[in-house]
Design brief:
265 residues; alpha/beta; six-stranded parallel β-sheet; two-stranded antiparallel ribbon
Amino acid sequence: MQVMTPSAPPDLAPPAWPLKHDVFGVGVSATDYEQATDVLMEAAHRREPGIVTHLAVHALITAATDRSYGERINRFDIVAPDGQPVRTALNCFHRTGLKDRVYGPELMLRLCERASREGLGIYLYGSHPEVVERLRDNLTAQFPGLRVVGCEPSIFRALTAEEDEQLVERINDSGAGLVFLGLGCPRQEVFADEHRDRIRAIQLCVGAAFDFHAGNKKMAPSWMQRGGLEWLFRLLQEPGRLWRRYLVTNTVFCLLFARRYVRGH
């Protein structure tokens, strides 16, 4: 499944978005950090619109079982395999040979590092004021020279038409090539999809990366990440909020994986 891309000026070829493969009815991109970073930076420098999200098991199962959300996700230019189980499904069913997942918080850091070296502006939109401000400060401390050309929190309600128009104008006028969205799933995906033809930049849905890189929440140890156990770490951090999510979606993932495997992929 190859995603459709926005139209580009006649003298420029459209971005070579990574190829997608079907996983439970959802197109997931067979990509790695190097390829994703390269294609996104190229498009961002050209101020071409594009939308990117990262699917772990919860988001994948939500997209597979919610038709409206699934159709929206399938319009994204890159749907990165954020979780190790999602990467395993790509490798098992499509023999993609991916050696690692493409974790949203990690891709965000790699893009910021490149942006700091190449003079590309970034925009941060989402979360609470104190979180997004700490995120900005931490990123600019980690990557000297990084141009954060916009930084604003979510207002945690639907924007009016006037507010929405003003937000789009602020982002476009900032000259940002990369817009990081920390609005939470599924609000950030809805926002990116609805603004893909209005915001002249790459929009990346990175969710919890705002809290992680702001120091508001802890990331799972690397050994848990490599072993596909990040969900367990997060469950132990927030059991009251997450137990039902993981019980349901992890079970559904295992059932769908087993059914497809038994049927010969």
